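Quick one, T. Sequence first:
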Amino acid sequence: MSKPVFLFVVLLLLCSCFCASAQSPDYRVGGGDVLKVTVYDNPDLAATVRVSSDGTILFPLIGQLQIDGLSVSQVADHIAEKLANGYLINPQVSVFIEDFRSKKAVIMGYVTTPGLYELAGPTSLLELISKAGGLTKDAGDTVTIKRKQPDEGSGEAILNVDLRTISVQSDGSLDIRILDGDSVFVAKAGMFYVTGEVKKPDTYKLVEGTTVIKAISMAGGFTNIAAKGKVKVIRKKDGQEQIIENVPLHFAILPDDVLVVPESFF
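Structure tokens:
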């Protein structure tokens, strides 16, 4: 199975679990979220409320209530506590998020539709990539996440993620969770070039472990007049062009290498 197809399958598997995880009890409520609140045996107190920009809601009997940053279960407990203060005896309150609006993350780089996306409940990296239309054909395996550190002033944490590592875990256990305010960048893949006596001279995406023979196979193989024992690699090192002659077939290809297959004159 090719890498893009495999990643797509993984994305589908993860997205199928999304509805089950969206109501995670540790989700922190914020401005713009819409909450559905019910109070057991008190249907007249059922309400659907939107959290205001200052993190408050208006609820029957209680009035204005500050809930910004509370988890869903904490919101339920907070409402129950207020209702128990002179209104109801042992109120049982349930809170359900009807619409997630408060959490957002940016994804840029080699995805189909870069931009700012709302995090509808707990959202993993692969789910965010899926929201952005998936990876482009030039996308690499490396993703960089910049994350604000609330306890360290304006500092940021830099997380480097290898998509290949995530894709081999069918249960998504290594798929990192995206948080509010994260900035995600999908890097471009390393490229290499094959020219000369091969059937499909072109630019190719570099994957780990690519050797001369694998590169030639990607380029359709040798032509009938190729000098198979005289393959050379043109490589830039410290800003200087370096020509490596007669490379063996197991020679490792690096980003921006030019693989040249000359013609045989015999």
